[in-house]
Amino acid sequence: MTDVNLGLYFLSEMVGTAMLILLGCGVVANVALAKNKGFGGGFLMVNWGWGLAVFVGVLVSAYSGAILNPAVGIGLLIAGKITFTMFLVAFAAEMVGAILGAVLTWAAYRQHFDVEADPANKLGVFSTGPAIRSYGHNLITEIIGTFVLVFAIFAFADYGDIEVGTPGGLGPLTALPVALVVVGIGASLGGPTGYAINPARDLGPRIAHAILPIKGKGSSDWAYSWVPVVGPLVGGALAALAAPALLSLA
After folding, report:
1. Residue 110: how many CB atoms within 10 A of its CB?
2. I want to staple 97 with a disulfide (CB 3.0 to 4.6 A). Which of 17, 125, 133, 231 is the partner?
């Protein structure tokens, strides 16, 4: 991608990530918080909600190539598809967008946060957490899940022109393959950690949880917060390194 307007690039990534987090955290709020119409909808509803959130986020961030994820960004950087400056700008935009999306989720569900008694359910709307806390095993799960995501994105590049971060050749439906992969990762690998597979997706909303005036919110669980940051970055880097050997990349 040449002659990039970094201001528009930042805005595109910020808007796309904000939409991703608003709809993704929103589906968790609908399922987890008391007195919601979607309460108790189950993990598969969350999987599909996050997949559709990715679909919308990618759809509205075409200018930047819809990276929306520092793990994808580091993979593209290693592959030489974006510059280091573009990676840094995208990362900053994704963090701002993630915090904004989380704040909007809280605004939409504020009454339900107020009546929800369990602090863990409130935190779970914003960030991921392990089903069984074992940092080493949790890290491996996040590495594997993110590897699948980023490796698949590189594979999509074989089926059309790729601008920065999205598969081409499908017009507005370019976002659909990535969305379906996210649903699949959630359904197949999401149980142990809640499948962050995106550092900004977890860290941005966790920061929002820490600063928002949420009634009875409890801890933001910073002791775990490094896992959904380091794991996805490692998984994205490994996918970029593996792709040239295992895929027929142009």
Report:
1. 13
2. 17
Its domain, for residue 36, covers 6-243
Measured CA to CA in angstroms, residue 41 lies from 49, 56, 81, 111 at distances of 11, 21, 40, 19
Q: What is the tens place of the pLDDT at every residue in 49-79?
A: 999 999 999 999 989 989 999 999 999 999 9
Number of domains comprising the chain = 1
Q: Count the Cβ atoms, other than its own, within 10 Å of residue 203.
A: 21
Tell whether 16 is covered by a domain.
yes
CATH code of the domain covering residue 194:
1.20.1080.10
* pLDDT one-digit tens code per residue, 30-50: 999 999 999 999 999 999 999
pTM: 0.93
Q: Three-state DSSP class for 218?
A: coil
Helices (H) and strands (E) in the chain — how many of each?
Answer: 10, 0
232 neighbors 51 (Cβ within 8 angstroms): no
Cβ-based burial of 142 (10 A; exposed 0-12, middle 13-18, buried ≥19): buried
